[in-house]
Amino acid sequence: MKKLFYPAIIMSLVLASCSSDDEAGDVQQDIDVPSNYVFERGGETTVQYPGQTTRLQMTAELTGSFKSFDTATEESLLNMFAHVEGANDFENTALNASGKNIKSKTAASADYFSANVAESAEIKADFESFISQQVNEVFPNENTTAEAGVAGQVADGTRVRYVTGKGLELNQAFAKGMMGALLADQMLNNYLSTAVLDEASNREDNDNLVLDGDNNYTTMEHKWDEAYGYLYGDPSVPTANPNSVLNESEDHLLFNYLGVVDGDDDFSGLAQTVFDAFKTGRAAIVAGDYELRDEQVAIIKEGVSTIIAVRAVHYLQAGKESIVAGNVEGSFHALSEGFGFLYSLRFTNNPNTGTPYVSPSEIDTFKTQLLEGNGFWDVTPETLDTISETIATAFNFTVEQAAN
Amino acid sequence: MIKNALFILSLTLVVVACSSDDSTPEEENNDSFDRQALLVNWADNIIVPSYTAFTTETNNLVSATNSFTENPTVETLQQVRLTWIEASLAFQHVSMFEIGKAEALNYRNRINVYPTNTSEIDGLIADGNYDFSLPSTIDAQGFPAMDYLINGLASSDEEIVAFYTTNENAENYKAYLNTLAETISTLTETVLNDWNNGYRDTFVNNTSSSASGSVDKLANDYVFYYEKALRAGKVGIPAGVFSNEPLPEKVEAFYKEDISKQLALEALQATQDFFEGKKFGGTSKGESFKSYLAYLNTIKNGENLGNLITAQFETSKSKLEGLNTNFSLQIENDNSKMLTAYNELQRNVILLKVDMLQAMDISVDYVDADGD
Hints:
heterodimer; A: 404 residues; globular
């Protein structure tokens, strides 16, 4: 690990020396970037993202309910997904009172889906099918040992996993897929999109301190904070200094995996980089420096996309290791997580192109390869390596760096 | 791992430099240690004899359990308990060999997942309908489930016996206990038969020094066992190393109360004996991890790595010996000693998993699960 690190360091030195010349370098001196994500006007905070927190909580509770064999129904889970204000869909009554839901924001970003409603509908249907399959295929086989083509239980060490006939754990596919289809898509392709940040008179209003109705923020400030909320919005994560609970929060979505990836020496510093970009970008909005803002957008897009890519490769490789070691069933949990992150890859955003790092059609091919025939029961190490290499190459890291 | 990474890196550089050269070297190391002699000693002098001895104990356990359920008395209960202890001790000598049929059966988890799930057991007994091949029942079977049923149902033997006589579900209790013992025995015979009917030859002839070779695989199984089942399971987890508070109810054989130390010491001795290639039930030593390290002449801190590992086994043993026979009491009364023992066990994780495997150019084939 240590030795591997040297090339990475050298590489970053090279990159740093390449890029240092063509930057103005003194722009940031004009901007007051706070050490924490604290922005106030008239002594009151201007940062709010309750809608994001609500959706993260809804996603967490729905994912947990995938294993409520005795109480959940297809209808009850689909209702959690497409919650209607006032319906008693959740244990958490605050969520029931909310008019927000998951489904309407799934694959619903301005940049990727506003003119692409057919694919958006397909993606929403995919997540609904994860729910329906869980209830209709896995639930009836709760006490059946899974085989190729037969849903049921598999042993994973001392844990029990409940899988489809293809070996897919649907709660993993759902949760890890949501990180892209809901969180990353809304964050990167919607709220950090110029189309949203600069919509209508947002720039002019922001420059002239025209606040959003009775709120204490400008519309542009709020859009930025809504992006922030999709990463840091779990109630256990403090707004001002989220990295203070890195790897210790109760979040199980992107913030959790940001911590995991940051904990890998090959990617250490990522959590700080992303947080600094959010902070600097927000300060830039306050200062009206939209060029600096957009530089930070690029950093966030790359950083958050990297979380998804690294975990996709990591889990596909973990599954491969298990298969090579002769433990096919033991690979299903990792492959299910890998499948979910692979699904999420479609929502990544390469700031140089404004498109996903791996093309949607290639991702679809990979998903098909993973699940064709008996799915994980007979997927080959070669297939897993090929997919891993493609992802890693697109992101400029190595499979080895993500796997260990 | 590091070597492989560097290897791949340099390979990439080579490929970039001259991509026309398509001869890919095998990913094998070049030492010429006699891996087959090592595998033969493991299989013939340690693994198969250990399973054979354990099979005898599991047969005794089934006999005693049957006698008890045919005639439930305090005496027959105590007989079950004795055979259960003997079998539990003998199991410590095979638990590390999770390879071949054992791996396919999820053997260790079928035999010894603790703490056992008493509410699940109660429910299955009341229901009278269960399938121990279902993964969700691993925490309701094996030695820990038997521990609950012969030691944990009540505080006196008379009251325990009553579960098998006057209890309204007495027949179900008897059936469940018999099925537990028979399942342990059947699984063990299945593994032993596989070794005796072909797997031994497969195992000793798979001398490849790649990830699928027998040495690499069993080395991983052994280190995994030492790290997870012995160090963490028997000591670290109950001592609270992986949680906010100590968890004294998570010791092995919790309901028997006074054999958790004995089981840990037996397991530690078994892992040390295997490391040193000591013949099962004897004193002579054959090819082993230790002799392999001596062959490789691996020096760490100026000393032979094999000797360091042996010394660390001895240190760990002395720390375990200083603990209460009942680890639960030790944890409740003075957990610091438990933590000290854990620290000594942990030192050998480093020596075995990092130094030894690197010296042998063996890649670790397992990663810590992220817990969800």
